[in-house]
Amino acid sequence: MPIELALIDGFPVVQDEDGRVHWESGGAIDADGANGQNGAKFAYRLDDKGLDALQNAGYPKGAWDNVLVDRGNGYPLTDADGNIYSKTTYAWKGRPIPTRYVDAATVPYVVVNPLVRRHAVGVVIGCRALISYKDRSIVAVVADVSGVGRIGELSIAAAKALGIKSSPRTGGIGTGVRFEMWPGSAAIIAGEIYELQRA
Questions:
Q1: φ, ψ for residue 144 (rounded to 5)?
Q2: What is the pLDDT confidence band of residue 62, given thresholds at 50, 70 and 90?
């Protein structure tokens, strides 16, 4: 029998007997992990001219160290051009900072609410997902975790593939995005196998 894992911002998140987790909501755009690793722009810059606004990363007056890579001295890690490195919950083991995190600009991914991650049966981070909007569906990976009150976020690349306005600053859609994921089943995106990563 299907189990309701959480009710987030009025949207019920359900896990079926076969393990599939699903919900339908709007779709906000997430830029985290875009560190120029595939030739695209960085998510964040010191001059605030990155793909997303610095305030959305919580910098400088919020909990930015959840989103940005800490240099170790209370400031975010940057390159020589003022680009700031951001992170996703999913991290490739053994890779250097620029390529360690999942690139929102080129990889279709889902951001999952922490309640869903906590209550779902099976490992969520790194699992395969399917995102659908209107007549399009794309395969994705669950790569990041949102704030407690948020639901329905997808990467820039996922939004582009679905025909949703993909700017983290001005894009997204209010309704009609269907999210499905299979905890415990590793995602394969562009030939790359994702490792399931426990909390």
A1: -145, 165
A2: confident
Q: Is the dihedral of CA 28, 33, 35, 37 positive or negative?
A: negative
Distance CA 44, CA 104 (A): 12
pLDDT of res. 84: 98
- C-alpha count within 13 angstroms, C-beta hemisphere, residue 45: 11
Tell me the pTM: 0.95
Please tell me the distance from the alpha carbon of residue 5 to that of residue 50, in angstroms, as a whole number: 35
Residue 136 parent element (H or E):
strand 136-145
**Residue 3 vs residues 16, 18, 177: alpha-carbon distances, Å:** 6, 11, 21
Distance CA 30, CA 70 (A): 19
Query: How open is the CA angle 49-105-108, to the nearest 5 degrees?
Result: 150
Separation CA 121–CA 103 (nearest Å):
27
Give the integer Cα–Cα distance in Å for 119 and 107.
26
**Residue 3 pLDDT:** 93
Q: Is the pLDDT of residue 15 over 90?
A: yes
Strands 21-30, 153-155: pairing is parallel
Rounded CA-CA distance 132/110 in Å is: 12
3-state percent helix, strand, coil for the chain, nearest multiple of 5: 10, 40, 50
